[in-house]
Specification:
heterodimer, A: alpha/beta, five-stranded antiparallel sheet, 37% helix, B: 264 residues, mainly alpha
């Protein structure tokens, strides 16, 4: 080596690494989970496609999408089990490339409860507790918190599915985490078990634990979550507060004439008054659904009476999360299964959905089938 | 506290469960006893290669360990199967995911697992040595084999050497088990491929082309377990080659374990 060739390459390499660190985007301070352009590619298939997440600290957030939407792959990336192909992610303020920095404060059950079948429930938790340098007393506490104390010393292979789920949740709770990530925690549970899990999750969120729970059941998520992340085909459809999503959907009034034959005339009458009337469908034939707030109900009744139509019922109606999602995505039912596969009257539903897609997409900030609504908060970009 | 101690203790929760631990121990002890009994009963007859087995040869200081050395391949195969099943089982059961979430330092986790498995193999071989030696001592008077040399310092040294040789060979087999466990991520595939490689494949290759035996890892381990007595390769050469193979296998396993995505 000559005087003109000092040992610069190693120094340059170090600087380059530091530069990379400083180039990382910084997550907002209130974000428990945050990602930007997170992508996972398997060959030609993109399981997760430029996902940008923001789950606020302290939220009880639902992560919903159809089977195969990329939920589990996303969770795996967040937990450092697989590496993203592109993009950045942060959990509890630390990059997902350094899982050791945040996983001690994270509890997770991913892809179902997976334990050694030959070990007892207690021994399975003891194994994990030892890895986390926790004592056996913590194992006893968590078993108690999920109601498994009496079966703790039975082998895992003898547990019912519900008990296995509860053991999985106990394992996730072992480190008393700041962030709890659960993948389909109510799968296989009976109604009582589902209620127990709901109650447990609400209690944990009330204690300021951030809970991120994936599910393919919108009705489930609606009942327990205050924040929502929706994905489909690896892409973000919506994220934000559940109330924002529901509020964005227009309230409706359902008018039921005494004589069902008057429904068509009533619908035409309301259209003439400039109101948006839903086309009749399925069980609603004989009623008229109109987009209007509850405050105008009396006026609608007067309009009907003036036309000689007596109303048997007039009810205010706010769509559920499931219905909002269905309308917005056009062809997904409450189990997040494409309608064409699950519903016998798919063509009717598709026609209904198609007639409303654009307006709802605009109103709730979705981007569906190439219909962007860029001005709305929570809109996928 | 050593950094891998928690992983070591965690792994022992699995390895120490009574059915698995005592089941494996019983199998190993039975194999060791069988080796010792058959060796003693072969006195006055010819062995597999047609060489006469004399009472004088067995009464030599190293005679007490001949029974154990005769079945060292079975001990090694057991070590391979146990490690391949344990490591592969962690992938198949999905338990490795939970472990990596609880402890995300992958190399330390693997090191803890390997140390725990090595300790398990050490205990098994120790038990096998004790049983084989005890059976040899018990049967020696029956078959007319003198035990005076076995009680001598040289005899005790031979017992120690025999134990270490068989242990080293078994740990070598266990390293192959770790490698196939990490590569195949399934106990069934790992055990079957590992055994198929170590037994029929290497044996066939070395029978067809005998110089290969000096380079094939499982054959070298058998040579080392027998203290290289009766083999064409030197004890130290076999030891060095085994070490090189084990280091290479450990590096490949560690690299895959650290860098591969942990999918279902």
């Amino acid at each position: 080596m000559t005087a003109e060739t000092p040992a610069r390459p190693p120094r340059m390499r170090i600087r380059s690494r530091r530069q990379t660190r400083t180039d990382l985007p910084q997550p907002p301070p209130d974000a428990a989970i945050w990602s930007q352009g997170l992508t996972k590619q398997y060959g030609a298939r993109r399981s997760v496609d430029r996902l940008s997440l923001h789950v606020p600290t302290g939220a009880l957030s639902g992560f919903v999408g159809p089977n195969g939407a990329g939920k589990t792959t996303t969770l795996r990336m967040l937990l450092g089990l697989i590496r993203p192909s592109e993009g950045h992610g942060f959990v509890l303020g630390h990059p997902i490339g350094d899982p050791a920095a945040y996983l001690p404060r994270v509890g997770a059950m991913i892809e179902g409860p997976t334990f050694h079948p030959g070990l007892t429930g207690r021994a399975n938790l003891l194994l994990l507790a030892r890895l986390r340098r926790l004592g056996p007393e913590r194992v006893t506490e968590t078993l108690d918190s999920v109601g498994l104390t009496t079966r703790a010393d039975d082998r895992f292979s003898t547990y019912s599915l519900g008990m296995k789920q509860r053991l999985g949740i106990a394992a996730a709770l072992l480190p008393n985490p700041e962030l709890l990530i659960l993948d389909e925690p109510t799968n296989g549970l009976d109604p009582a078990g589902i209620r127990e899990i709901r109650s447990l999750l609400k209690d944990l969120a009330a204690a300021r634990m951030t809970v991120f729970v994936s599910s393919h059941l919108l009705s489930e998520v609606e009942q327990i979550c205050d924040h929502l992340v929706m994905i489909r085909a690896g892409r973000l459809l919506f994220q934000g507060h559940v109330t924002d999503l529901l509020a964005a959907e227009e309230p409706r009034l359902v008018l039921t004439p005494e004589h069902s034959g008057d429904a068509e005339r009533l619908a035409a009458l309301l259209r003439d008054h400039g109101l948006r009337v839903d086309p009749p469908q399925g069980s609603s034939i004989g009623s008229v659904s109109v987009h209007a707030p509850e405050a105008v109900a009396a006026n609608l009744n007067k309009i009907a009476m003036k036309a000689g139509i007596t109303l048997r019922a007039l009810t205010a109606y706010r769509p559920t999360l499931e219905e909002t999602f269905l309308v917005a995505t056009g062809g997904i039912d409450g189990d997040l299964i494409p309608r064409s596969r699950s519903s016998p009257d798919a063509s009717l539903d598709a026609a209904v959905a198609a007639s409303t897609d654009a307006s709802v997409a605009a109103s709730v900030g979705f981007r569906i089938s190439g219909i962007p609504a860029p001005d709305m908060p929570g809109c996928a970009s | 506290m050593c950094v891998v101690t928690p992983m070591f203790r965690a792994e022992w929760v699995k390895l120490g469960r009574p059915r698995f631990f005592f089941g494996t121990l019983a199998a190993i002890v039975a194999v060791a006893a069988l080796g010792a009994v058959l060796t003693m009963l072969s006195v006055g007859h010819k062995d597999y290669d047609g060489v006469p087995v004399t009472a004088a040869a067995v009464a030599a200081p190293d005679g007490v360990m001949q029974g154990l050395e005769a079945v060292s391949i079975l001990l090694g195969v057991t070590a391979l199967a146990v490690t391949a099943a344990v490591i592969g089982g962690d992938f198949t059961h999905g338990t490795l995911r939970n472990q990596l979430i609880a402890y995300p330092y992958r190399l330390r986790l693997l090191a803890g697992k390997c140390l725990a498995l090595a300790a398990f193999v050490t205990v098994l071989v120790a038990a096998a040595t004790v049983v084989a030696a005890a059976a040899s001592f018990a049967l020696a008077p029956v078959t007319g084999v003198g035990t005076g040399a076995w009680y001598s310092t040289a005899g005790l040294v031979e017992i120690g050497k025999g134990y270490l040789n068989v242990l080293a060979a078994s740990l070598g087999y266990a390293t192959i088990g770790v490698l196939v466990g990490v590569v195949f991520r399934s106990p069934a595939a790992a055990v079957s491929v590992g055994l198929a490689y170590a037994l029929p494949l290497e044996m066939l290759v070395s029978r067809i082309w005998s110089p290969a035996a000096a380079w094939l890892p499982a054959r070298l381990m058998d040579t080392f377990a027998a203290g290289a007595h009766g083999y064409h390769i030197a004890y130290s050469t076999a030891g060095i080659r085994i070490l090189v193979f084990c280091v290479a296998a450990a590096l490949v396993a560690a690299g895959l374990f650290k860098h591969r995505d942990m999918t279902s």
